[in-house]
Amino acid sequence: MADRPVTKLDKSDVLAGLFAVWDDITVLLGGLAEADWRAASPLPGWDVKALVAHMIGTESFLAGVSAPQPDIDVSTLEHVRNDIGVMNECWVRHLSGEPGEDVLNRFRDITDQRRKALAAMPAEEWDAVTLTPVGPESYGRFMRVRVFDCWMHEQDIRDALGRPASDDQLVGPASELSLDEITGTMGYVVGKRGKAPEGSRVLFELTGPLSRDIRVSVDGRARVVDDFGGQEPTVTIRLDGLQFTRLAGGRPMCPGRPRHVDLGGDKDVAARVVEHLNFVI
């Protein structure tokens, strides 16, 4: 395999986002009725409790705790598509019968344990290359993926409970890091999935509290760039920033925020890119 550049990220920045999203999820889950824990989420087969069980399972795995043995062959379930899905489902089934309050306490316990371990992690370990969901990468990048995963699940929980984030709740280090993680995949999305032709210059204009511009240039291969060197975009895609994250994560758009997607320039390419925005496994 050709050497890929390793992403080095500031530890304090990433941990600020990770700890903030854990705090937000803990507050969101506090005092839920048992029926709320069973509310269906936008992810097939998973309720609110399953989303939290999945996050508990991933952090437990990172803390060296083995997944519980499932009562059935979870790989046969329709929504389980890979080995990561199998591990997730072991925890989901294991915790499904526990009261919501107990699941919340488990979430608090494992995230407290992980906070201590991450805060104490030396810089060389933070920057060291390890296996991650996005291939061999720095441990720091892996933790940014964790921010993205937890932040997306916070929005899933809000969707399930009918408690969408306010504009103020959307602004913060976790959402910025999640957008950074999504932005890093847009070369792949535009080039490989959206099949934008050579010479394309694709501008995503995100509006609302998660506003930012993301530019992808197709020059030999598609890659994210800071600017188009004075040239105009050939494709523009304008939509609410939170809705962009939902589409990129393979979720339905949320109620309560604008759902309109404006396509400009080469509309066929723009439509194909939007149709293939989902990059998650």
TrEMBL record:
Coiled coil: none annotated. GO terms for molecular function: metal ion binding. Residues 176-272 form the MDMPI C-terminal domain. It comes from the Bacteria. SUPFAM superfamilies: DinB/YfiT-like putative metalloenzymes. InterPro entries: DinB/YfiT-like (IPR034660), Maleyloyr_isom (IPR017517), MDMPI_C-term_domain (IPR010872), MDMPI_metal-binding (IPR024344). Residues 20-158 form the Mycothiol-dependent maleylpyruvate isomerase metal-binding domain. This is Maleylpyruvate isomerase family mycothiol-dependent enzyme.
